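About this split. The held-out portion is used to measure sequence recovery: a designer receives only the structure tokens and must propose an amino acid at every position. Recovery is the fraction of positions where the proposal matches the reference. Here is one held-out target exactly as it appears in the evaluation file.
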């Protein structure tokens, strides 16, 4: 073997020096919003299992039964022979849940986002992407080769101008997270719909952190904002509030037919494992029949956010989701603060570039329906003590 790899250790040392090196660790999930790390049990305030469905006995039983009947893997892409009755049933269920003609599964939410963008715009088109969009939307935009404009959702007049300037290209596509994964705030969906309509543009939204959490029926933020019918492409994941794994797109039959024929990640990847589809199907059913989970969760989120603001922590006041950033700027400080919280029995995310822009390292705290008022209060006290000791002034 040639000696062509020393650059890797040099680069690793460099990211270590900047406090940006990430190390692998093992987390054992436990029921009730808890986990175990290095033999120590703690509360998990870091995941995206917003409704605690990954641990629900009904969801687990559905996966177990599908594994017993279908085996563990789909064995081929959906187009070849990987689309089993569990896939077909889940797609039907998702279409019914979303109130659309059809739905299509993808191996991950990441793949769904990339796949849709590349299937609907290309070299002759223009794409407009929010500055803080998820990496899967960013990569999809780049891969599509469409002319890319990055916009700031707080300055939509600039987006309007950019759309006007692109009036002569073949197609225009606006893409946005509906709930931003690191800030927890929402996209101005009604304004984006208006701009899309005024400029004859398509609008795509990523509901990854909103499916199951927002809206009277739990469909997501477009439902909550009353704009479902004005959004062309709605992408969701099965991996957060649904507690499973995978992505999906819901829409008209012709859109789904187009994606079946053109969305490369679902053409060229093995279909989701049947037990995962069965688990997601059971989760959709719970979301449909137990709306109190999301209303209780959002109520606790409102109270927790008010407590963070009252404490004077550097959070994002406009956030609406079960996602709570505490901005600490310095990456090493974020890591030290998270480690101190772990000592007290609470796991939170320490988020550093490139997951967030430089200078905005933070704690990312998430609430789950499994966290009751008492636990949230204990956590708030721990947060106050730790921030005072480790990051005074934050
Ligand atoms: N979109 C957003 C906003 C996300 O936060 C994530 C996951 N971090 C994804 C898409 C990707 O979803 P998945 O984990 O299902 O690939």
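Reference sequence for scoring:
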């Amino acid at each position: 073997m040639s000696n062509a790899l020393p650059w890797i250790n040099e680069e690793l040392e460099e990211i270590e020096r900047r406090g940006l090196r990430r190390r692998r660790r093992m987390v054992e999930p436990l029921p009730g919003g808890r986990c175990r790390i290095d033999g120590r049990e703690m509360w998990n305030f870091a995941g995206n299992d917003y409704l605690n469905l990954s641990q629900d006995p009904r969801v687990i039983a559905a996966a177990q039964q599908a594994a017993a009947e279908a085996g563990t893997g789909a064995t081929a892409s959906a187009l070849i022979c990987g689309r089993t009755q569990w896939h077909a049933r889940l797609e039907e269920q998702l279409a019914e849940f979303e109130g659309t003609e059809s739905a299509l599964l993808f191996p991950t939410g990441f793949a769904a986002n990339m796949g849709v963008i590349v299937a609907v715009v290309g070299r002759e088109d223009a794409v407009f992407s929010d500055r803080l969009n998820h990496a899967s939307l960013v990569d999809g935009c780049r891969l599509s080769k469409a002319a890319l404009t990055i916009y700031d959702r707080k300055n939509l007049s600039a987006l309007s101008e950019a759309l006007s300037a692109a009036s002569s290209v073949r197609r225009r596509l606006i893409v946005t997270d509906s709930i931003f994964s690191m800030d927890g705030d929402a996209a101005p969906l009604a304004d984006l719909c208006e701009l899309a309509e005024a400029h004859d543009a398509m609008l795509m939204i990523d509901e990854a952190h909103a499916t199951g959490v927002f809206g009277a029926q739990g469909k997501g933020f477009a439902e909550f904002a009353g704009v479902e019918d004005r959004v062309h492409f709605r992408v969701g994941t099965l991996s957060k509030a649904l507690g499973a794994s995978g992505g999906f797109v819901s829409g008209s039959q012709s859109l789904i037919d187009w994606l079946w024929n053109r969305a490369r990640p679902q053409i060229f990847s093995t279909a989701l494992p049947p037990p995962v589809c069965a688990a997601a199907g059971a989760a959709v059913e719970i979301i449909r029949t137990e709306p109190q989970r999301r209303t209780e969760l959002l109520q606790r989120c409102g109270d927790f956010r008010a407590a963070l603001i009252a404490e004077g922590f550097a959070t994002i006041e406009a956030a609406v989701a079960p996602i709570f950033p505490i901005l600490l700027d310095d990456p090493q400080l974020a890591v030290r603060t998270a480690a101190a919280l772990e000592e007290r029995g609470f796991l939170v995310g320490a988020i550093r570039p490139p997951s967030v822009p430089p200078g905005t390292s933070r704690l990312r705290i998430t609430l789950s329906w499994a966290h009751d008022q008492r636990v949230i209060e204990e956590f708030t006290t721990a947060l106050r003590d730790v921030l005072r000791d480790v990051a005074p002034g934050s």
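Annotator remark: The two ends are 50 Å apart (CA to CA).
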